[in-house]
Structures are given as structure tokens and as C-alpha cells.
Amino acid sequence: MQERIITLATPVFFALIALEIAWGVRRGRNTYRLDDAINSIGLGVLSQVSGVFVRVLRIGLYAGVFDAVAPWRLPADSAWVWLFALLFYDLCYYWHHRLGHERQILWAAHVVHHQSEDYNLSTALRQTSSGALLGWVFYLPMAFAGIPPEVFAVVALVDLLYQYWIHTQHIGRLGWFDRVFASPSNHRAHHAVNARYLDRNYGGILIVWDRLFGTFVEEDDADPPVYGTRAPLRSWNPLWANVEVYSSMLHDMVHARRWRDRLRVLVAPTGWRPDDVRDDAPRQSFSLGRPRYAPQATRSARTYALVQFAFVLAAAVYFLQWQERAPLFESLAWFAWIALALTTLGWMLEGRRIGALLETARCAGTGLALLAVQAWPGFARGMPGSTGSLEVLAAAALASAACAAWIAWRSFAAWRDEMRGAAHGASTPLGRSASARVEPR
Length: 441
Prior knowledge:
The chain is an all-alpha fold. It is 62% helix and 0% strand. The protein has helices at 2-26, 34-50, 55-69, 79-102, 104-114, 121-124, 132-135, 140-144, 149-162, 176-180, 184-191, 208-213, 238-255, 259-267, 275-280, 299-322, 328-349, 353-373, 389-423.
């Protein structure tokens, strides 16, 4: 159900993003960058598509526990039950969110939402693909309290959707509202890496939980929030964004000498490392004044990425509309295709030559496969819009491959000219910066 509602809400999300951009441009304070926004929204797309495979963890396990242990079933047709469930969910969410910052294994999933060094409505859509693996545990008390699964599913969605609007820099303080509810001001502080704001303001709808449990901090104009994480991702690759911290944890577990330390990596406070590993592989020091990650892709690459991203987004929306009837293999094929597309586009936005080459191969392979097989998951079963669409999609894919090949050739030509210039002692910068993969905080 959540995927369907999110799909229906997508036009509203993008309308509000367009409004925020227009407002920011008019006020001379645009908070968007194209590459960052594509990366954030792309991670949201990947989260929704991957969520198809872990639906049982979000709702199925809750329903199973409810049926097995709930001492009673609260009436789903009573208003007080819905209000109680929403408050209960928000309390559970507070602790899920708080431990998602304080414990390494949970931070590995939640870090995705904080990696952006911008703060706008696209940041709200930036979601992890692995949060469901352990997150379901925090909401089981609601099952023990007798809250029906259908009520749980709806209030979870309400809590999630509420948090969309608070990801903006264009709404200031709201007086008494800031003291009771999660608000843009409160949540800006939550996303900041400044020392005074770090690991504060966890509330989803109510900020009173933070006041009650001692984690509230007020935004201070004298210390404006700096966004991101203390170990910047420095990449537009959505797959790396999802595994960055897991990779760091695995590295520390493999290289730790004591088994006790290897196991402790999983449950330790965020940022903890075994002494021997820390000495052998020290982390990059944190600097609040660091420059934001801003690789210089060419204008043609950025334009191509934007147009192609719109196609990928439309494909993801289409998939989410019919995926409940899809065999597992077809769903996996869609996920792989979308993940590959977002990854190659991310590399193109990083200015990597391999990104354009892989994007050429992806589009050419898609177009040729459509022409050869004359089928595509979802279209093969006569879904709406399938009639006569395969040839159009194939032509579009091959045209995209030609565009990507042209961008790859221009990138190669620039590299060749630089090498020739370097050989004559006149090096010319490529105008791009490679992403530096640093370890998570």
C-alpha cells in the first residue's frame, strides 16, 4: 500500500519542489543543485523499488506478531484508536530514529538520508534501501498493545508524509509550533553537523519527545546549520551511498585482531573503531568549513542526465503501479535496470568518462533487447500503454545511446588533448574532480 500511496503523491512532491525552486530563485536564495537533487531523488526511487522485496519486513512481520501475541484487538473504527496509534508510532519512531544515529549498524542504513550537503524538499525523498532490515523491531510494541496492522500501516504512512514539508530552508521559526511539533527550524538543526546540533531533534511529528528525553536543541542564527555528515560521501553513486557505512564496518571487522572487537563493531556507538584498526587506517579529520562536493560535469552531460533521469523516474512509477502482480524475476529485472541507470547517471554527473561509456552500453542494450525479444516486463501482459510502445521505447533507448556515445567521445577527446598538452609541458585541467570515498562518522 505504501508504494501505491507514494506513487500517487509523487506529482505533489514535484510540484512543491518546483515551487520551492521558484521561490528560492525569486528571493535570490536557491537551495538546489541539479546533481545533488538527482542523487537525492534517485535514492528515494531506489528505496521505493527495493521496498517491493522487503514488504514482509515492514508489514508482514508486524501482522504475524500481532496475530500471535496481541492480548486484544483494538477497534479500527474508533477515532481514539487512530490517535493513540499515531502517538504510539511517533514515540517508537523517536527511538528508532535516535538509535539510528547512536548505533553503528543502524546508522549504516539511516546515513543515506543525511548524506546530502544541501537541505531542501528533495532531501526529504532521499531514503535508504536497507532500513527495513532492522527497523521493524522498534514498532513491535504497537502489536503487543493490540493496534491492528491496517491501522499501523496508515499511521506509519502519515508519520512519513508529515516529515516531507519540514525539509526546507525557506520557512523560518513558527513560535509555539516549534515547541510542540517537528518543524523546518527543528529539523534543520537535526540535519546539521555543527557540534551544538549533532544528534538532536529526532521527533517525526512531535518534538516533545526530544524535550522529554533531553535531545532537543533550538536552531541558533549565530551558528547556521552546515548540512551533510561528518565524513562526506563525495559521490553521486546511489549504490555506494547505500553501502558506504556497511563497507567501512566490514573493513574494520576484517582487520581487527580481536574477535571481541569484530563483534563490537556491529553494536558499538556510531564512529567507534577498534584501536588497532584506527591506528593502522586513521580517518580523515572533520572540518566544518569543508567545501561541498561539486564535481564539474559538462553541460551536455548534465542535460542528458536530467532528461534520462525523467525517463527512469517514469519507469519506476510505472513499475510500482503493477509490481504486485509481477513474478519475482521480473521485479528483480526492473530493480537491476533502474539501479544501473541511476548509477551510470551518477557517474556522468561526477564527470567520469566510464559513466558515459556504461550509459551508452545500457541504452544500446535496452534498445536492442526490446527489438530482439519484442517484450518487456509489464508490457508483455497487456498493461495500459503497452500496445505499440515497444518500438517507441526501443527507438528512444537507441537514440539515448547515440547521445551518450557522443558525450563519451567528447570526454575522450578532451582527455586525449590534455594528454597531448601534458606531453608538451602545457597541461590543461579536465574541469572535473574525482569523488573521494571517505569513511562514515
